[in-house]
Amino acid sequence: MNDMTPDRDDRSANLKGMGCSRKRVEDVRFTQGKGNYVDDVKLPGMLHGDFVRSPYAHARIKSINTEAAMALDGVVAVLTAEDLAPLNLHWMPTLAGDKQMVLADGKVLFQGQEVAFVVARDRYVAADAVELVEVDYEELPVLVDPFEALQSDVVLREDLEPGADGAHGPRKHHNHIFLWEAGDEATTNQVLENAEVVAEETMYYHRTHPCPLETCGSVASMDKVNGKLTLWGTFQAPHVVRTVASLLSGIEEHNIRVISPDIGGGFGNKVGVYPGYVCSIVASIVTGKPVKWIEDRMENLMSTAFARDYWMTGRISATKEGKITGLHCHVTADHGAFDACADPTKYPAGFMNICTGSYDIPVAYLGVDGVYTNKAPGGVSYRCSFRVTEAVYFIERMIEVLAIELNMDAAELRRINFIKKEQFPYKAALGWEYDSGDYHTAWDKALKTVEYDALRREQAERIEAFKRGETRKLMGIGLSFFTEIVGAGPVKNCDILGMGMFDSCEIRIHPTGSAIARLGTISQGQGHATTFAQILASETGIPADSITIEEGDTDTAPYGLGTYGSRSTPVAGAATALAGRKIRAKAQMIAAYLLEVHDDDVEFDVDRFVVKGAPERFKTMKEIAYAAYNQAIPGVEPGLEAVSYYDPPNMTYPFGAYVCVMDIDVDTGVPEIRRFYALDDCGTRINPMIIEGQVHGGLTEALAVALGQEIAYDDLGNVKTGTLMDFFLPTAWETPNYETDHTVTPSPHHPIGAKGVGESPHVGGVPCFSNAVQDAFRAFGLRHTHMPHDHWRIWKTANDLGLHG
Amino acid sequence: MSDKMHIKLKVNGEDREFLAEPRELLIYALREHLDLTGPHVGCDTSHCGACTVTIDGKSVKSCTMFVAQANGAEITTIEGIGQPDALHVLQESFREHHGLQCGFCTPGMITRATKLLEENPDPTEEDIRFGMAGNICRCTGYQNIVKSIQAAATEMNSAKEAAE
């Protein structure tokens, strides 16, 4: 008979499985400065690459003279488009079906564009040589306004055949990229025309940038002896990079090894494929030496991965009582010089068609016009699933504007239009099927916690006091309720460059009962090594502390589509759970054999299989693992391994209710966040500590975007926000404390019911901060004002409303 | 550019000597000549603090100082703050309170926090937020960083009291 101690609760706690706030295993090395980021990679004989970049936003290149640069001691090579052309690498395909210059081919289309790549002994010599490359430019007219670009005779993309279709259908102007539509425009227009109440608004969701603390970079090492290329880089999708590198270079995929080491934050910036990666590869092939390329901050802000830049015009209709009847949305989307948006192939505007939000809107239409301008390419999802921040900002502002039109409380307007719990799975007017939700419960909990009615009373008193001249501070109550769409996605409709968006997990249980699992995703701070081990601990009964999680090395990890769009938990997390269940199924057979009973007569219990009805007869997973390797079991292969590739049947739809209370000094324009309450429902919670950390971080990035962070251009296409002097990143001083809360509505189709959470706070946070600012001025006639609400713009709003006397 | 200087530093308690161009930044020298890759480069303009080290008792952003200016100085980087078997209280505390995510800002953050707690062993939340405002984190929203530093201060103070 087996020893029955420790008891079940102790055994369960010992696993550190799902639901516990397990401390992160990553932190041991990070707190000691022993992380291994791309710039920490140092190889013998390694050279350094640096770019000559265009000072102009639009210019023809008449000549490039590299002689003086080449003559400098320590310079090994200077590559231009001419050098890349014979390899057909002077252009590269983008994720959006367009192509992009790797190095300027005859002209430049945005400030900071890559013109030549200098390779030298060290960074200082490379920087010197960059200054010595002489480029003769002829300036061309600059288009930075997408509306002007659609009218202008100036042709930005001379490489595209006039009149020919683009990757997403007909182009109606030489600077037009696509029109993407969803929903029923005719019926929507009809509903709007006959509606009792219609609210209309145009809002600009400004251009910004994910700006992770670590910039982008790569180290390429071509070993000409064995024909192998090894590429370290800041890649959120290392396997896709391997496939792209193979297709571009002609090197067979098995001869390419891509490694994403530790990544210093991604937030979408590191999804795209950038000229620097390609140039480091080519330079390594040309020189036969390893070549490192690391962006500086200015290069990062100017050239890789902008986000947003959407002009959105909405019309929303309702009955006099506030029941929404229809929604029309048109977007003019500034994609910059090349359409390099990082979206699934069939979604050139991402999942913007989630813009009906959390509301039961019977009919809707969305049309998005993509436009070329002389700005940097990119269009990544900055801490959100594809274009979901834009969609949620749009609907949450439209709700506020409709509330003004109806002279109604915005919280109540939301409540009477929420999709009801019993309507799930809910088929939205623009096509998505929401998996699960309980919006009313979340909303009521949020409003009750913040004592919403009391806040409104206080606000009304403040307004009176302001009018009496007793205070110069107004009070804003920001509300937002968001539904995300994450976990892309079903292979049937989501792919990146033809690769279906599944993900994967492979597990090997060692004879002594510990394990290693590898996944197709890659952590950038989310703590995968901690949380995926928790999923496996619960599924297999092996303690999380005995499970190593590895990601990011394409030679060892199974193929996966990477980490972005909150897809790691919904997709790779599901693969992990299912791989764990395969382990458990085999373990059950082994246990039954060892216990000399039928397979069906044993059942899983925390960390062991027990004979049903005889709990004293059991085999622990540790014993089973050992048996898998040292016993010949009839009909069962030796070993204990499993692999799972998971194609999700649907997206997941996390949601949440946020409230922000803000005081605004109308004379200085300074907002002071008094309180921020965030309720998130991400389904099953794997590690509450990590969830809370994600929420704090996402909200702070939301604060940044709403209250000041932008990539701004002047009329000549000069970037005005190229350093952290001008580009707003909140410090500890500007950032408030947040109150977090949750409800749990599991995803019905996910193996463990988890929905993903990393991006929710950003998606819900931006409209919440923005609504707080705008709500402060509602009583004085403000309907809408564009973000970012920096001090100057808030002051200007107050001034325009005549509040400065 | 080839005129190199003979640089002598005391780094993490060890005497180090090497040749460097006078124009080399200290962060470059630490990372490239001394292989101390704990401090990172995040912005090049002394805004983010990922490169923070301690020089002669003061927190300094090593991306904005020439190695020549540091010649003869005593420098502590994250690598000199604790050892695997004897971590600094702050290193334990950041892990305990989830004061980090991607880890890129963490070395500079902890290095700065060690000085902050020397300068002010019993800081209020406001003191911490102000004293850490030179170090940017993109992941955590600072709430847990503040909590980590507060908890470390409490622990260090009670350890000091117990010793007295």
Can you give me a brief rundown of this structure?
With 805 residues, chain A is an alpha+beta fold.
Q: Would you write up a description of this structure?
A:
The complex is a heterodimer of chains A (805) and B (164). Chain A has 805 residues and is of the alpha+beta class. Chain A folds into 3 domains: 8-35 and 503-646, Aldehyde oxidase/xanthine dehydrogenase, molybdopterin binding domain (Aldehyde Oxidoreductase, domain 4, 2-Layer Sandwich); 38-140 and 215-263 and 270-303, Aldehyde oxidase/xanthine dehydrogenase, a/b hammerhead (Aldehyde Oxidoreductase, domain 3, Alpha-Beta Complex); 306-487 and 651-800, Aldehyde oxidase/xanthine dehydrogenase, molybdopterin binding domain (Aldehyde Oxidoreductase, domain 4). Helix content of chain A is 28%, strand content 25%. Chain A has 20 helices and 32 strands. In chain A, the strands form 9 sheets. In chain A, strands 3-7-1-14-11-12-13 form a 7-stranded mixed β-sheet, sandwiched between helices. A 5-stranded mixed β-sheet of chain A has the order 9-17-16-15-10, sandwiched between helices. Chain A has a 4-stranded mixed β-sheet with strand order 20-30-31-32, sandwiched between helices. In chain A, strand 23 and strand 24 form a beta hairpin. In chain A, helix 15 (528-540) packs parallel to helix 16 and helix 18 crosses helix 19. The longest helix of chain A has 28 residues, at 568-595. Chain A is globular, with a radius of gyration of 28 Å. Chain A starts with 7 loop residues before the first helix and ends in a 5-residue tail after the last helix. The model of chain A has no long low-confidence stretch (mean pLDDT 96). Chain B has 164 residues and is of the alpha+beta class. Chain B is 35% helix and 15% strand. In chain B, strands 2-1-5-3-4 form a 5-stranded mixed β-sheet, sandwiched between helices. In chain B, a hairpin with a 2-residue loop joins strand 3 and strand 4 (58-61). Chain B is globular, with a radius of gyration of 16 Å. Chains A and B meet through helix 2, helix 5 and helix 18 of A and helix 1, helix 2, helix 3, helix 4 and helix 5 of B.
